[in-house]
Amino acid sequence: MAPGRARDTAAPGVEGDLAFAERYRAIGARDVRFDGQFFTAVSTTGIYCRPSCPARTPRPENVTFHLTSASAHAAGFRACKRCLPEATPGTPEWNLRRDLAARAMRLIGDGVVDREGVDGLATRLGYTSRHVQRMLVAELGAGPQALARARRAQTARSLLVGSDLRIADVAFASGFGSVRQFNDTVREVFAVAPGELRARRPASTGAAAGQAVRLDLALPVRHPFDAPGVFGFLAVRAVEGVETADVSDGDRLRYARTLSLPAGPGAVQVTASRTAPGSWQVRAELELGSLADVATAVARVRRLLDLDADPVAVDAALAADPVLARAVASTPGIRVPGAVDAHELLVRSVVGQQISVAAARTHLGRLARALGTPHPSRFPGLDLLFPTPEQIAAGVVETGADRALRLPARSVRTVVSAARDLAAGDLVVDVGVDPDVLRENLSARVGIGPWTAAHVAMRVLGDPDSWLTGDVALAAGARSLGLLDPGLPSATAHRRLREHAARWAPWRSYAAMHLWTTDRWTTDGRPPR
Q1: Which of 315, 434, 463, 471 does the annotation list as catalytic?
Q2: Which are the contacts of 17, defined by CB distance < 8 A and separation ≥ 6?
Q3: 103: domain CATH number?
Q4: Range of the domain at 54
Q5: Residues near 132 by Cβ (< 8 Å), separated by ≥ 6?
Q6: 83 belongs to the catalytic site
Q7: pLDDT tens for residues 211-240?
Q8: What is the pTM of this model?
């Protein structure tokens, strides 16, 4: 069952009736996999809950369903104190949908409304503020300000119960403009004062604020979660100085990297600890220069690890194909790693065209060391920020023994051209771009092929249905699974694989991860032949 678009059960017609029936069955079964994907509001109590709330199942005539907590807030409901609906993973809906509402939600999640206001959001989407307001209210039951306010409330709850930050600091770290606004919102949403929420936290989190903002937060994750796969993927691509990883202990995985955030540089260390077979606890230690970047940093780390995916839906769909059934059974909950910086990911993708993962890592490490900004961190192995488009455009030259990027001249020109246009705003690559538009704009550039365009859409936008045509490692994985005859010519093999992959829609990005990781990661990031 996948949540539908209707925001409540009163939606007329057969589609609305089916959505109501499916969701009502989910809350009756207390199905945890739908936590965060929709919210249940109960008119007789005035509260809204997650689908798995242990309270007695309400009568259907008293229930409405909402795709966002902001919609429930706007309808006058407050959060349940028993099931804590704000403490759930997010929904994959905004990556699955390609409409304006999904693009807006990705940008709101990244903090655009907090930083640039509704006008800034509308400008990025290419519409007027009035149209964006009208569309979001019609689609999601709440406008951009209300949706951003709900995001701030979620961040506030997490910081109140998961950190030792002063309550006034929590207000500004959550994105509120004043402590009064923060207090009013927390009371309205959670029906308690901020101090009461703070009293529920453990004795000490060891996350007090000093000169720099240091926080240690739990990251809710929907299980099953293939932590070894996503941490292994990041580990073999880690750029020295910018990233570091340790996946040698199968029960405790570590990945850390520096961050370029709207208010300044920072760093994060993410750990995944196995708590039971197939179950992981994920935590993020943040080291930031500004409280204003807390929510944005958390959102970007969640996208990097694909924590809001619906693994049960993905696994069920892909396992229906006998070719992938064994791979899905051996690696449940596979994820598609995202990106914390869209511009960095584009540069990395262009550099990685036509070369191995290991070679790309070497080139990128040299580029970062030559042009990146030093940024010391308390996390071992981190001392650099990945160079910005401005630094790359100004610092990369095509010739010379000491050049920062030792690739063929044509590839260097492609990197510099893309960096120059990113810096000037002539090329837009961010979470608010339509996937088809992004692929079209990138493929139209000299030196960027369909593979790179699809790879950027997959990792920047979280597009679950990207297919990387012509990828050699995908073909190798397909052969190892018996999907392709080893003797097929390359062009024929890629064509047949692309045709077969059509049956994996809308989860082709996840299918690609299975093919890439047939036997887990080797030292050069490709599955063994």
Answers
A1: 471
A2: none
A3: 1.10.10.60
A4: 13-66
A5: 100, 104, 118, 121, 122, 125, 144
A6: no
A7: 478 999 999 999 999 999 999 999 999 999
A8: 0.91
